[in-house]
Design brief:
alpha+beta, Ribosomal Protein S8, Chain: A, domain 1, 2 domains, five-stranded antiparallel beta sheet, 31% helix, elongated
Length: 186
Amino acid sequence: MDTFKAGDHVAVIDENLSGVVISVTVNELSVETEDGFTMQFSPKEVVKIDKNLRFSSVGGIQKQLDYKLEQELHKSRQPIPRKKEKLQAAVSFDLHIEKLAKNHKRMQTFEIMELQLETAKRHLEFAIKNKIPKIVLIHGVGEGVLKAELEYLYRRYSGISVTPADFRIYGQGATQIFISQKASLQ
């Protein structure tokens, strides 16, 4: 098994993450990911990687990980089972009005939109305050009015990036929000 020190470039074996070791204890490594998040890992969960490949393509890192795993296999003579790719769901919030209000049929269109936007804002600010790195807002496809209003809302915050959420998990009507540790409220 590799020995680690601060400054080593590492990749997580069973996840698509890489970064730089910040600190080392006997049973734990603090790693700053390429997205700027600090995460804790056991030394068994990471491998050292060539620093020139750390932010290159996922394929380059994966080849290096496969090579390291193969070396470990020859040392221990015990096969390491390959894990299938997992679809990792983030914390998600459904903004469909049926999920937000029981008496939504009595509400006017502007009241519905106001409730949906206020709910989205509350969840986004909670995630920023609590350093939650990723959330998903499910807004639906519809005519795109709510999605457009949400995009306007996102521009009010620094330190967040927005992409369409994984359609295999959420379908087409969802947005994934990545929140950096430096994100701030309005």
